[in-house]
Amino acid sequence: MSHPLVALPEDFAAECAAFTAVHGAVETIELLLVDLNGVVRGKWLPAATLAKLALEGARLPRSTFGLDIWGEDVDEAGIALATGDPDGFLKPAPGTLVPVPWAKRPTAQLLTSLLEPDQHTPCPLDPRRVLQREVDALASLGFKPMVALELEFYLVTAEGDHALPPPGTPTLGSQLYDLDVMRSFSDLLEAMAANCACQNLPTETAIAEFGPGQFEINLHHVADAVRAADHAVLLRRCLKQTARAHGLDVTFMAKPYGDQSGSGMHVHVSLLDADDRPVFAGEADRLAPPLRAAIAGVLATAADNQLVFAPTANAYRRFQQSSYAPLVACWGFDNRNAAVRVPATTGRAARLEHRVAGADANPYLVVAAILAGVRQGLIEKRSLGAPVDGDRVAHAGFAFTDRWGEAIQRFRDADHPRGWMEAEPHRAFVTAKEKERATMLTRVSDVEYATYLRRF
Fold first, then answer.
1. Rounded to an integer, what is the distance from CA 169 to the centroid of its chain?
2. What is the DSSP code (8-state) at residue 290?
3. Which fold has domain 135-421?
4. N vs C: which end of the chain shows fewer Cβ within 10 Å?
5. CA 259 to CA 172: how far, in whole Å?
6. Tell me, what DSSP letter sits at residue 34?
7. What is the rounded CA–CA span in Å between residue 156 and residue 214?
8. Is there a contact between 353 and 343 (Cβ–Cβ < 8 Å)?
9. Buried b (16+ CB within 10 A) or exposed e, 56-85
10. In the chain, which segments carry CATH 3.30.590.10?
11. How far apart are alpha carbons 432 and 418 in whole angstroms?
12. Phi and psi of 42, rounded to 5°?
């Protein structure tokens, strides 16, 4: 039995042969698996085992998906010791065998999906599987999503416990689109571009963003939503590893500096029909009915899904005034204050841009939640309110919460998330976030001590 998430043995054999012909033999294979937090986990294997992976797979516990952000089991999820902690089988994701240019020894990297112990059924806990289910649901309506992601990040020093701007980075004013800033980091940015190309990551524009040492890299759109999310996960890994090889680091933390811009994950979505025609194409500055309905669905479900878009305690610091992070579920034509921006309305470029998620979110879950909103809007033929103009968004829709606990509760109890996410991954994700929040509440911040310890 085949599944689009894993390669057929004959196809993987051809992929291995093509890889070896170009890159030669390697010593180690890094198998990558993405958990529900968006953290890349996995294992290293000797290169001799590569040819057998598509047939036999590699064992890894199912509970790997449900680990909390610190890598510990969450007993309340009921997927570890409560079930005997059984293994699943890692199988190769098609087209993901690439070199690891920062490794000291000849090494290859392979993204995987986890199959159940029968080695045929995709594990429902796998976030790639979660997204594939939503792609399949849209396909049943005759639609195929085109998706591209943009990621903002900060360069930080490699030393110390706190993220700091690298030496030479401006600390006053904004560095937005500053070419001198780009030039000052040209060696690193060029190495990042080279390593992305080596790993077949379709990067496009790189720009300097608002914050000191902050940049954005855009990925090219692809007609495969799972592959688009793969690109985002692998881009994060590639950028971090490249920076570390240059004595720096990269953080995708949503709000690493309280007085600087946060880092977002912007998702561009369009739809093609069965004849490869753009479903969202309309007239200039006028939305086609399917695009109107899709945006309405995304906005109507945004509050229920906010935990996916902002999964960490730090992510809620990003929802601030004048921060280019949306505070209200609204839409606008080419308006970066809006939760959903419409950059174009004609031809194949007609699309929506979702701007709510932080750069720390799980790309698979983010894209799945957006597509679920699109699908709901199309099915229900939802109506859409007027676009917002400028920064006048206060009463244009419901406000996103800045309270993590409220977002957890809403995602746990609302019907919509439990519609696009099966029960087991939904429970695992929620219980992991509840445990993470409970742990965070036991930590008292420095500013609380400085303000209250001797005041009262």
1. 27
2. H
3. Creatine Kinase; Chain A, domain 2 (3.30.590)
4. C
5. 11
6. E
7. 9
8. yes
9. ebbebbbbbbbbbbeeebbeebebbeeeee
10. 135-421
11. 16
12. 145, -150
Nearest to 334 by CA among 288, 289, 370, 285: 285
Please state whether beta strands 214-219 and 144-157 pair in parallel, antiparallel, or not at all (unpaired).
antiparallel
Selection from 297, 310, 298 nearest residue 401 by Cα: 310
Residue 384's SS3 state is coil
Q: DSSP state, 412?
A: H
Tens of pLDDT, residue by residue over 214-272, are 889 999 999 999 999 999 999 999 999 999 999 989 999 999 988 888 999 999 999 99
pLDDT over 70, % of the chain: 91
**205 three-class SS:** strand
Q: Give the span between the Cα atoms of 97 and 401, in whole angstroms.
A: 40
Angle at 192 between CA 186 and CA 196, to 5 degrees: 145
3-state secondary structure of 198: helix
Cβ atoms of 370 and 282 closer than 8 Å: no
For the stretch 160-173, what's the b/e string if a residue is b when 16 or more beta carbons lie within 10 angstroms of its beta carbon? eeebbbbeebbeee
Third-level CATH fold of 1-121+423-456: Ubiquitin-like (UB roll) (3.10.20)
Q: What's the CA gap between 101 and 140, in Å, rounded?
A: 40
d(C-alpha 45, C-alpha 414), whole Å = 42
CA distance 350 to 343: 7
How far apart, in whole angstroms, are the C-alpha atoms of residue 22 and residue 14?
A: 13
Does residue 144 contact residue 174 with C-beta atoms inside 8 Å? Answer: no
Name the token pair of 423: 């029960």
For the stretch 7-36, pLDDT in tens is 999 999 999 999 999 999 999 999 999 999
Calpha distance 75→236 (Å, rounded) = 29
* Residue carrying structure tokens 């990621």: 151
**Number of H-type helices and E-type strands within the chain:** 13, 14
DSSP per-residue string spanning 206-230: EEE-SSTTEEEEEE--BS-HHHHHH
Question: Which pLDDT value is given to residue 1?
Answer: 40
Q: 449: exposed, middle or buried (C-beta count within 10 Å: 0-12, 13-18, 19+)?
A: exposed
Where do the CATH 3.10.20.70 domains begin and end in the chain? 1-121+423-456
Task: Record the pTM.
Answer: 0.94
8 Å CB contact between 144 and 223 = yes
| pLDDT for 116 beyond 80 | yes
Q: Is 55 exposed, middle or buried (0-12, 13-18, 19+ CB in 10 A)?
A: exposed
How far apart, in whole angstroms, are the C-alpha atoms of residue 239 and residue 192?
Answer: 6
